[in-house]
Specification:
By secondary structure, the chain is an alpha/beta fold. The strands form 3 sheets. An 8-stranded parallel β-barrel has the order 1-2-3-4-5-6-7-8, surrounded by 5 helices. The chain is built from 33 helices and 17 strands. Helix content is about 55%, strand content about 10%. The longest helix has about 35 residues. Strand 10, helix 16 and strand 11 form a beta-alpha-beta unit.
């Protein structure tokens, strides 16, 4: 790496580090707000539950008198009064304890559907109110009409009874809209106790205080002459965004400090909701936010600054530093291994890496600020692991994007074009494995091989296990004719039985290869090769270390119909983007057609692996382990035929993905360790190349979990909430990122038009479910049978096409039903109006897109729409080939 490159790397890392700190600083600039008064001319709502105690277990777990005294004592000198919610058990001591700490009490009783308990609460409320002078007001119930525990008739009867038995002012506590909707309730109270919680109405914190004032003005107009007390007013420090209301510590501080200043000006009587965080509320319908309304946390420590300027995240310096360090380490690895990357590419990677690191640090920090239980920790760990998987895929995609578009030169390709050409043309043994192939098609393949412009080669056709003699016999006879025309060049073998599928046939051919053949070439039985194939590619074997030379797969039937045009567009991305970047690190995926392998290397590594259904990629990995090189020429030297139906398209990709998992399992130690012959770049490209497929496998679990979660939300909407938006946004970001990458690279590097790019995206998405199943099976099983892709098959009808995508269609409909059901139930129950729900519905719809794509592609294979609807696909290949002249042309130049 040159000094100039090192300086450029340092400047990019440093500039974006400064920008990251700047963003953190800007978002956390201090905000001057009115100071919290030393003594509040109002009170706190107090529920002294802590240390894991809960009102759901009152019989065995009531707060002790000492705990109540400790909590109320903390408020002495900070407020003039407190408000409570129940009067039974140890709560009966509240008035006496409050008096000791010079606090007045608005005493509340808890009413619900338990009539016997209601009677006890009413009796205790009256007695404590009459016996204690510091009890200034009595409350009969709390939000009973809002919750639906009591109807207005029952509630007014309780109110009338209490008013008749005490001389203290009596009321009940309800939200402002419940009071307005039931104005007759005011006839049974001495004052109005109203709850003002703008968060629940989705009001942004900037307008929340004005919202309270406006509602107080409304209450005064509706209930003239009545004293109005704000029974609850506050803002949560954690939880879900509701509408435009964002819970956070800084927003809680901002709202309360502004409210206290305004309340003093307006002369309000109020009670802040609430003194202390209540973790037991995580088990209620307020789960996710109910625990976080306290001014003091569960440990009774202040949650925010009372007088100093408000900072959104006080720890932002540490978080920014962590995100910068993580980013610098990642960029150091990327830049060290991408020395030819232009500054634009480095800057692009820096934007992605710094952005991802910052968001990740924030999500982990934000989640850690919650009160965590064993279940929430486990759920959080699963979500974070999933998030890290998404991030790994996103970074791998970004790295490939940068290397595919912003490199100064493909140095390895250039070195071969300058120095890697030999005039030696050794003998080549061309192997053509065949199983039950249409004889006319295979004969065309042999004619193309017979026309090769190469002085020294042989062709071995190995037909294995074809039962119908009428299929293989014409090929045998044609090989005999060719052998007579080209003595010593063509041999035919029909072997039945022969184990090992394609690998078994190739190993059989290897055993029968001419002793003087130095190079083994393999093509599929449907390939019509260019006459210059061997003459252009064989000279690349200049050094003994060169083990493989590979040309891309290509196809000649892309113009047959729209389905094949879509498939053709989808194939191009790998061969003209991914393989080129892999070639720079000697890490190409060997594929079993248009490949040349040095004979002694093939013998040394033990031939083709008959246990693996992608024997070609597995062989390439073993050759790399032995320290040999491979080279990729991104020029088409032969064209085959594509799958004719969607089901065959899926089975082909299933085989590739399943075989990849077989390789991953068998060679895990080599791929994860430095001690097995693979370079860092080779290990990276094999693992990173399979990451999207692994993600498709885990996506199956995500889809199943998303459906189950959504169904639970529909059946228990008050208990099961949508996943946090932070965890939902990352998969959406990855989806959008991959889509932008595909569009950009297809149009700039492959030369596709917009329609072809969209077709490639749809075809790729359509395979996601198949790949996911293959990955899961590949990780859990060992012996999935080899599937040969049929050639020249008849098209399927409409019903067969739908059947070919029946799993995908079922999942698509299930996800659509979940998206609609979750939205409908939540709106009907008036539960979640915040972005968590909206983003989750979007996630469900986006999650259905691969399944919808599968149905579209399957239907396209049935209807046989014209290929011209996508434009001229052959232009893709011409564009890609135009970027890299043949080696022979470069030498001649």
């Amino acid at each position: 790496m040159t000094a100039k490159t090192r300086l450029s790397n340092f400047l990019v890392v440093a500039i974006f580090a400064l920008l990251t700190f700047g963003v953190w600083a800007y978002l956390n600039r201090p905000t001057e707000e009115p100071a919290w008064p030393p003594l509040i001319k109002g009170g706190f709502c107090v529920a002294p539950w802590k240390n894991g105690k809960s009102p759901f277990d009152k019989d065995n777990n009531m707060p002790t008198v000492e705990e109540i005294d400790s909590d109320i004592g903390l408020l002495e000198g900070k407020a003039t009064a407190i408000r409570t919610y129940e009067v039974l058990g140890t709560f009966a001591q509240v008035p006496e304890i409050a008096a000791k700490h010079k606090l007045n009490v608005t005493l509340g009783s808890w009413l619900d559907k338990r009539l016997d308990n209601n009677e006890q609460e009413i009796a205790a409320l009256v007695k404590l109110g009459n016996d204690n002078d510091n009890v200034k007001r009595l409350l009969v119930g709390n939000e009973n009409l809002t919750r639906g525990d009591l109807d207005i008739e029952a509630l007014t009867q309780y109110l009338d009874r209490v008013r008749a038995e005490t001389h203290k002012p009596v009321s009940t506590a309800e939200t402002w809209n419940t009071w307005v909707a039931n104005p007759e309730l005011a006839e049974h109270v001495d004052f109005i106790m109203v709850h003002m919680l703008p968060y629940w109405e989705g009001v942004p914190v900037e307008r929340a205080v004005d919202h309270v004032v406006n509602r107080m003005d409304l209450m005064r107009r509706v209930f003239p002459g009545k004293s109005i007390v704000i029974g609850e007013v506050g803002w949560p420090s954690e939880g879900r965004t509701r509408g435009s209301a964002v819970p956070s510590v800084s927003n809680e501080a901002l709202f309360l400090r502004r409210f206290l200043a305004r309340a003093k000006k307006e002369g309000y009587i109020f009670y802040i909701m609430e003194a202390f965080d209540q973790t037991w509320k995580n088990a209620t319908s307020e789960r996710g936010v109910g625990a976080y309304w306290g001014v003091y946390d569960e440990d009774r420590q202040p949650k925010f600054e009372f007088t100093d300027p408000i900072v959104r995240v006080p720890e932002w310096h540490t978080l920014a530093a962590v995100s910068v360090v993580i980013s610098a380490l990642l960029l150091g690895v990327f830049f060290f291994n991408s020395r030819s990357l232009r500054n634009r590419g480095r800057s692009f990677l820096a934007v992605v890496v710094y952005g991802v690191a910052t968001v990740t640090v924030w999500i982990v920090y934000d989640y850690s600020q919650q009160y965590l239980t064993v279940s929430s920790v486990l759920v959080g760990l699963l979500l974070i692991l999933g998030m890290l998987g998404v991030i790994a895929v996103l970074l791998a995609e970004a790295y490939e994007w940068a290397e595919a578009h912003w490199v100064t030169v493909h140095s390895r390709a250039e070195s071969f074009s300058r120095n890697g050409i030999s005039t030696h043309l050794p003998k080549v043994s061309v192997h053509v494995p065949a199983y039950n192939e249409p004889p006319d098609m295979l004969i065309e393949t042999l004619d193309a091989l017979a026309a090769l412009d190469y002085p020294n080669f042989e062709v071995l056709v190995i037909d294995n296990n074809t039962k119908d003699e009428a299929v293989w016999r014409p090929v045998e006879q044609y090989c005999t004719q060719l052998a007579q025309q080209h003595p010593g060049r063509f041999r035919f073998f029909h072997v039945d039985p022969l184990a090992g599928f394609k690998a078994g046939a190739l190993n059989y051919a290897l055993r029968n290869t001419a002793p003087d053949a130095e190079i083994v070439a393999v093509i599929d039985s449907d390939y019509k090769v260019d006459r210059n194939w061997l003459r252009d590619m064989v000279p690349t074997f200049t050094e003994a270390s060169m083990g493989i030379v590979q040309a891309p797969q290509d196809y000649r039937d892309e113009s047959d119909n729209g389905f094949k045009a879509m498939c053709y567009a989808e194939y191009k991305g790998f061969f003209h983007i991914g393989m080129i970047t892999r070639n720079e690190r000697n890490a190409i995926i060997q594929h079993g057609t248009m490949t040349l392998v040095r004979r002694n290397v093939l013998d040394a590594v033990g031939g083709w692996a008959e246990w693996c259904i992608t024997e070609d990629a597995e062989l390439g990995l073993r050759i790399f382990q032995r320290g040999y090189q491979a080279h990729y020429l991104p020029r088409s030297y032969g064209q085959g035929v594509m799958p004719d139906t969607f089901i065959d398209f899926k089975k082909q990709r299933f085989r590739w993905a399943y075989g990849a998992m077989q390789i991953l399992r068998a060679h895990s130690s080599a791929l994860l360790s430095r001690n097995h012959g693979l370079s860092g770049g080779q290990r990276y490209h094999f693992l990173a190349g399979w990451l999207p497929w692994l993600a498709d496998g885990f996506n199956l679990l995500f889809t199943s979990g998303a459906i189950a979660w959504s169904v639970a939300m529909m059946f228990a909407p008050r208990d099961i909430e949508p996943p946090l938006m932070a965890f939902s946004v990352l998969p959406l970001t990855l989806f959008a990122f991959k889509l932008m990458k595909l569009i950009h690279l297809y149009m700039t590097r492959v030369g596709a038009n917009l329609r072809q790019t969209i077709a490639a995206a749809i075809a790729g998405l359509a395979l996601s479910h198949t790949i996911g199943i293959a990955v899961v099976k590949g990780l859990l099983t060992r012996n999935e049978p080899f599937f040969r892709t049929p050639k020249l098959a008849k098209p399927h009808g409409l019903l067969a096409a739908i059947s070919a995508a029946r799993q995908e269609t079922a999942l698509m409909l299930a996800l659509w039903a979940c998206a609609f059901g979750v939205a409908y139930v939540s709106v009907k129950a008036n539960l979640y109006s915040g972005p968590d729900l909206s983003v989750w519905v979007i996630v469900l719809i986006i999650q259905s897109s691969p399944y919808f794509a599968a149905l579209l592609v399957s239907l396209a294979s049935a209807f046989r729409l014209p290929a011209t609807m996508l434009g001229r696909n052959r232009e893709l290949l011409r564009h890609a080939n135009g970027q890299t002249a043949t080696i022979q042309e470069q030498v001649e130049a």
